[in-house]
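Weekly modeling sync, notes
Attendees: S.R. (lead), two postdocs, one rotation student

Agenda item 3: backlog of single-chain predictions. S.R. asked that every request posted to the team notebook include the full sequence so nobody has to chase files. The rotation student volunteered to paste the first one in as an example of the format we agreed on. Action items at the bottom.

Example entry:
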Amino acid sequence: MHRRKTTRVAGLMSGTSVDGIDVAIVDIRDAKVRLVAFDVFPYKPALRNEILALCHPDSAKVDRICHLNHVLGEVFADAVLRLCRKRGVALGSIDLIGSHGQTIWHQPEGGRYGGRTIRSTLQIGEPSVIAQRTGITTVADFRARDMAAGGQGAPLVPYADYVLFRDAKVSRAVQNIGGIANVTFLPRACQRDDILAFDTGPGNMVIDGVCRLVTGGKRQYDRGGALAAKGRIDETLLCEMLEHPFLRRKPPKSTGREEFGQAYCEWFSRESQRRTLGPEDVVATVTAFTARTIAEAYRRFLPAMPDEMILGGGGGHNRTLVRMLQRELEVVKIRTTNEFGIDVDAREAVAFAILAWATMRGTANNVPSATGAAEPVVLGKIVPGRR
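Predicted structure, as returned to the notebook:
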């Protein structure tokens, strides 16, 4: 693999929204990345419900965690095979797979053991199964090594953002809005030590969860921000939401379903009912919450406002959310990753392809200034393929 000038890598990502598997195939040459193929393979509803049950301590069972770890390995491998068939990419042309897996629990603050704080995280989607089914060397479990080095195991995409988006003359905030929203700040002419990155708070997670609640499950998300566009923001409730302690916590920091998952959505729904808000007002308020938390994070924690925001993730399709962001950040030019040849939905899958490529080169691919790790380390566990 190292003798070839171009390395073809498949990146696999399944995020906190548990919608499905994002698969991106990229060619990397001299740290230049070209997207070859991308698609999203939704989970079947029954499987999605099983995965979500594993994300809650009261419903997660060790036998199901064990079983679903291998089931997801099969599903992830099948996603690679399906994309290759669909786009006419020869499986044998792929040198490497980088798989994030599916996070079912992430404990960046850690717990006490033996007089020390031990941070922990768990992603399922067995990489040995992926390597066996595809025959391709697979790198997975990226977060654990950063945690072993004293980091939070997140965010991990800043290294890829640095490869893709750094610029000599323009400062950029690469803003992902997936289930959770995270930012990578790249000052102009930045070096890796200059990167600042952290989770800003909820992205689509609360919007999607509340949308399901107010529509009785008829809508899984607010397509294009249509519901929010018809609603009125309840500023009093929004101000109460903005008091969440995570939002005031200084970086490095990361969050997830543990803080902004189903329990948070149910709390918000109860508060909305108490205020007799209509469904559109409810969705408008949570959409404003995501926009405001991103803008407030920039104002509080970035050393300066960026010249540009490069927007990626599913939130890029929510036109109401994008309009709210532009109102909040008037001086920032908002662009999307599409303008750089990376589909807005593909950014994280592409990132894990880049991370796997760096791992195989022995290149440290965490960003300690973002995760809080004590030192740069090479992330991931390597499962050799059958070639």
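Discussion: group reviewed the output briefly. The radius of gyration is 20 Å.
Action items: rotation student to repeat for the remaining queue; S.R. to check formatting next week.
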